[in-house]
Amino acid sequence: SNDMINRRNIQWFPGHMMKTLRLMEANIKNVDAVLQLLDARIPMSSLNPEIQRITEQKPRLYVMNKADLADPALTNAWVKYFRASGAGCVAISAKQKGSAAQVRTAIEKELEDLIARRAIKGMGGARIRVMVVGIPNVGKSTFINNFAGQVRAKAADRPGVTRGKQWVTVGNYDLLDMPGVLWKKFDSLETATNLAFIGSIKDDILDIEELAMGLLSQMQKIYPEKLAERYKLSEEQLQLGPWELLEAIGRKRGMLISGGEVNTERAAIMLVDEFRASKWGRITLEKPYQMEQTQEQEVQE
Ligand code: GDP
């Protein structure tokens, strides 16, 4: 639905995000590579086109974070997809210990040539400077803390927490930690809703019932079995329209108001929370373009 994001109140691109983009532009010349964190559940929607534009000239590494929440087969497909595009790519869970080492290896592979050139020039000890970027809530603080091996930046569970840029020195690395940033105008409503599903757009500008219904209809399409299992839905219930399904799930959970009506707002909040907490299982909402094409072909043949 077009009402999910309240168009009269689009204030999710506040001034500090504009400032961050300018900061990136000003600092891009000071780094050897750019590491863009993506959310493994929505790799394409979490890829910021503004960041893409600013960092075009630099070696790139995509780090798909929150892989523990995503569908493993699709995560593999996405890693292949990004590597085929000529960029480095690894999938990690920033909360898990080994993830920093994985990323280090990937950076060194991506910068192989540069490191070799520096060694020849006797500059083998030069520090590797990496700009770390990503949308709000993608897990950037968690990742940097893990990489640094100690608590540096405060991980916050809500998007839009403002922080300035800062250099974080770890071993022979200098990480330039940029604040999380979205972009001005979404090219598609699907991108916007995907970002809302994972909590990168502040919930207070969203209609929570629309959001929950959007999630339900996505799930009905791509993971009906997971939805049925979580909420003990029958075949018939799985075919319901999103509003009726929201009501049915609310009723099952006993979320009623006077007169026996379902408290759909409470049901919606519960659904979105449970999705974000991965209670529905490991889910990826987007497939690489080629994969969708192939599947369509298969259906046609
Ligand atoms: P930032 O806004 O990009 O700095 O994101 P944070 O590091 O503050 O993380 C946002 C939320 O995602 C926090 O609740 C983190 O605990 C959580 N988070 C970060 N990385 C992961 C991960 O790999 N897996 C899971 N399940 N949660 C993560």
UniProtKB/TrEMBL annotation:
<dbReference type="InterPro" id="IPR030378">
    <property type="entry name" value="G_CP_dom"/>
</dbReference>
<protein>
    <recommendedName>
        <fullName>Ribosome biogenesis GTPase A</fullName>
    </recommendedName>
</protein>
<dbReference type="InterPro" id="IPR016478">
    <property type="entry name" value="GTPase_MTG1"/>
</dbReference>
<comment type="function">
    <text>Required for a late step of 50S ribosomal subunit assembly. Has GTPase activity.</text>
</comment>
<comment type="similarity">
    <text>Belongs to the TRAFAC class YlqF/YawG GTPase family. MTG1 subfamily.</text>
</comment>
<keyword id="KW-0342">GTP-binding</keyword>
<dbReference type="InterPro" id="IPR019991">
    <property type="entry name" value="GTP-bd_ribosome_bgen"/>
</dbReference>
<dbReference type="InterPro" id="IPR023179">
    <property type="entry name" value="GTP-bd_ortho_bundle_sf"/>
</dbReference>
<dbReference type="InterPro" id="IPR006073">
    <property type="entry name" value="GTP-bd"/>
</dbReference>
<keyword id="KW-0547">Nucleotide-binding</keyword>
<keyword id="KW-0963">Cytoplasm</keyword>
<dbReference type="InterPro" id="IPR027417">
    <property type="entry name" value="P-loop_NTPase"/>
</dbReference>
<feature type="domain" description="CP-type G">
    <location>
        <begin position="20"/>
        <end position="184"/>
    </location>
</feature>
<dbReference type="Pfam" id="PF01926">
    <property type="entry name" value="MMR_HSR1"/>
</dbReference>
